[in-house]
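Below sits the subject:
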Amino acid sequence: MSAFLFAPSVARALHPALPCDVDLPTECQITTLHNMGAGGMFSVPKNLHLVGSGHIKTDPGSTLEIDITGDLVMDDGTKITGNAITASGVAATVVITATSDVVLKGSGASGALISMNQTASSCSGGKGGTVDILSTEGDIKVENGAKITVDAKCPGGEIYMKAPKGIVAVDGLVSSESKLTGTGGTQRPGGGPVTIIAGCDLTVGTTGIVRSKGRDPGADLVHLEGGCEIEIFGRVESTGPGHTIPDNPVNHCNGLNRPDKPSNSTACVEIWSGGTLTINAFDVNNGQVNADTAQSGGNEIAWIDIFAKGNIKIIGDTTGIVYAVHANQSHVTNSNGGIVTVKSTDGSVTTSGLAVQANATKGGSHGGKITIHAGGVGAPDGNVDFGASSIQALGASTGTSPKGGSIEGVSFTGALLGTVGGQLNAGGGGVPANGTVTLESCVGTAYNGTVTPVLTLNPDNCAGAVSLPAYVVLPTCSCGGPPPPNGNCPVCELDAGGQPIEVIVDQDTTVDLNPDIPVCLGDADLCAFFTYYKSELTAADTWKAIFDLGGKKLVVMAGVTIKTAQVPPAGSERAAPGIEIRTTCEIVIEWGAVILVESYNDKTGDVVIHADGKITIDGEITNRVTGTLGVPGNITISSCCGDVTTGPMSLIQNIGIDRGGGDITIASCCGGDVVLNGLVLARAKAHSTGAPKPDIYIAAFGGDVVVNANTAEPFFDEYNPFGTKYDIFPGVLSFVTHSDKPGRVSIQALGNVEVYGHGDDTTPPVRKSFAGVAAGTGTSNPRGGVVDVRAGGDVIGTDRAFESSGNDNAIGGIKLWAGGDVNLARLGVNNSFGPVVDSAGSKKGGPNEIRAFQGGITIAPNTLIDASAPVPGVNLLTSCAGVTNNGTTNPADANGADDVGICGQTSPAFLFADCKALGVN
């Protein structure tokens, strides 16, 4: 997953058990001081829980290794220490390996402590120790008030925190700080390296601090790495005066460790994300990446690297003087601003507020170097958007040879934008300023902020791509979905004949959560698995009925309804708790069967259907609010490694009213297909201020998505929800009826996305209808929504397949991106219906963006790609192998030069890294 320079903890042999104060069946409790003396290797074959005055202590200079089969939980006030108290003392090394979670609890004012400090008031050869924490299957959490420290009067120690399959959340303190001063011919380091790696998400909360900090010899490398998402709401820093270069040993900011960096680097931070990356300092957030140096005594240099596969957002505050990302030297003369590099390989970069700063403004100083690149495909996915943010690389204007810094912004395939009020300031060097600001993009640069000195605007250029140093391997998200198929998925309980044991539901079932002890009324076979979540502290829409069948197959027979009773049972406002059904086997919902969550003038809970094996839905799943108040919860249907298949009479619908709609998510998380033969409908009035819109997300992370909407007759004929009649065909439809703000439909597949559309109703009267995959509104001035389709294989659309439905579709549009080919055709003999790809409007057309990354685009005879309107939209066709157009594009392709030979990227950037990114657990 990572190419980071520090080796992970190695596996160790079995060793003696750690003695427990309280030995319970599931955990070993430490409640008193355990002095482990010279350390050693110990095992705990269950959870390890430090409670009360629990304290594990090891001698300075020793190594203590603890292997835990389960969790490590340290309560507020408990400790693991190995401190050195002499000037020559070296603090201990502690290596903790847990198979599950590691949690250091805190109350804010205090918390659990892991301390390998050198606490002497002077230094004579001593050093801070090492803390190495590995959670092989779980998470690592450091709560507010909890601390992990390897601080020292001599050089600071080293910290490693790794959760290769989980998250890391730091709300407390993680610190390697050195108070070593003085310079000499043989220079020891200052602050030590800090490494935090999460296979899933990595978060530094608003109270969190991750730091390497030193004095004269500076700090060391702070490396943060998250496979899926990194969010910085607190402080991450490598900082200190750093005016002498350590050589005994060297730090990790240059040389063999980081050969592309200046040899005199004395502070450095690098943040690598396999997904998105956000640094947020706005309002109550404290997000800050700090590599300030040269606070006194002279100067060397510092650097910050911020790299991600996905979108990068740097959100600075709008008041004060502290920038979200800064590498300044503003206290001594003849200094150098730092080097700040921000790059997204497959996404966009967005900045706001006080965003990025690399200043050096005392006499004779040189401004720093700021580089911001985005490599996502097209606009807006690959934009660099500076908004109204402030970005500075100021140098001095006085002294000997002052010089302004440099700011470079490049969007390789998108646009580069900035609004009035923003600034790109590389001033300095006297009059005129001699810094540089250079901007470049592929599809247009429109920066309207203030630029100092004069802007160098390069011509549009779509060649090239984001490049990273050779040693950087951005991680892959390793969480969020069930494990991939391995011969053990699904896991079904089998009968004597080797067939799955079935739970057959043949009676209506109602779960009533109104009583103090909720009841399940109806089918005894299903109710045998009933549990619930209910809290008097939360609203009834957060409650839910839970049916976990273990390894048994669920079959809901025709004519059966499973529902929750409204809470309260009478009155003008009645909420509906949610329903959650899970099994490691399979689920079948027969035609005529219904799973229903329905409220009146109040909210509903979520409907969650999950199986590790295949899911077959021939019946109905409905989440609905009636009346005028309340918002429905979501519907989530997911399989670990099987197909999700809906029949031609199936209905999956989420129905909201004035206050807004809920979402529908359908996913096969690993190896299966999603095949939709019925109707998936997310509908809401959604005209209240701020009302959520009904979105639909469909994903097959290891297979294909197929939408079969090619029926002669509508699914709902003369559909009349609020006075206007429609023909609603099978397919996927997000429909907002009383607001001009639409929802969206997002579809992705590792394999193909195939949408087989329909024609008009063959039986009069013919009403307005929608394409097989569509998003739109139904007001007097309707606007089309976004239809975003991305496939690792091919995208296939026939007949009336894709639609952004409205009069004004400028904010909507259709995106069809394929790693292979895009094939579009009108196959039916009925030529009275609309285009295959349709974002046309009576006022404004939308954008239709069609791209084949490694294949070609084929538009068959009689096939229309339409973005026409009095204010026409844009058709943009881009491919590797070429465009064969035997149909019509209206208007014509906006850029014929990229119809062939654009082969640099092998596949589209996917919308979701995994099922976790879709909210599927």
